[in-house]
Amino acid sequence: MKPLVSIIMGSTSDLKIMEDAAIFFDEMEIPFEINALSAHRTPEIVAEFAETAYERGVRVIIAAAGGAAHLPGVCAASTPLPVIGVPINSSNSIKGVDSLLSIVQMPSGIPVATVGIDNAKNAAILAMQILATDKPELYEKLVKFKKDLKTKIIKANQDLSKLEYKFLVKK
């Protein structure tokens, strides 16, 4: 089995965030790989990794980074595959906002799709949406996933309608 998605992060300290993507891929039965790579400490390894991703079967890269957050951009510069950046609120970032801005503000020609700070699950969902454009079995799983989201909200509103407060106005 070849990985369709590659999850990479600047260090294993990001795993606590990126695990949400791994869990989602397991639930959806999407083969993935996961690695720690550093754009600053091992730039040549990152470039080779991104350059050879397609040959390994990878079709989407999810790259997480905190602080200066160069990993997603270095990957995007080294491969024509779609790269999704996950800004991390790390110990060397300003609540993740600096990482968000570093990832989202890529120069023309080197796009990185960017999700919210620490939002690895949205990155995984976006990766699945990209893959599903030509994989009907993944498309059907996405349809079910979205339907389940709708069902959860309907149930939540049913539960909320049972609340009793003196000044609660009900429809």
Explain this structure to me?
- The chain has 171 residues and is an alpha/beta fold.
- It has one domain (5-143): Rossmann fold (3-Layer(aba) Sandwich), CATH 3.40.50.1970.
- Helices cover 45% and strands 15% of the residues.
- The chain has helices spanning 15-28, 43-52, 71-78, 97-104, 120-131, 136-160, and strands at 5-9, 32-36, 60-66, 83-88, 113-114.
- The chain has a 5-stranded parallel sheet, sandwiched between helices.
- Helix 4 (97-104) links the parallel strand 4 and strand 5.
- Helix 1 (15-28) runs parallel beside helix 5 and helix 2 packs across helix 3.
Labels describing this entry:
single chain; 171 residues; alpha/beta; Rossmann fold; 6 helices
What is this entry, summarized?
By secondary structure, the protein is of the alpha/beta class. The chain has helices spanning 15-28, 43-52, 71-78, 97-104, 120-131, 136-160; strands at 5-9, 32-36, 60-66, 83-88, 113-114.
Task: Spell out the blueprint of helices and strands.
Layout: E1 5-9, H1 15-28, E2 32-36, H2 43-52, E3 60-66, H3 71-78, E4 83-88, H4 97-104, E5 113-114, H5 120-131, H6 136-160
Parallel strand pairs: 1-2, 1-3, 3-4, 4-5
Number of strands: 5
Largest sheet: 5 strands, parallel
- The overall average pLDDT, rounded, is 95
Report the helical percentage: 40-55%
- Measured between the Cα atoms of the first and last residue, the distance is 53 Å
Unreliable parts? none
Q: How many domains in all?
A: 1
Structural class by SSE content:
alpha/beta
Morphology call: globular
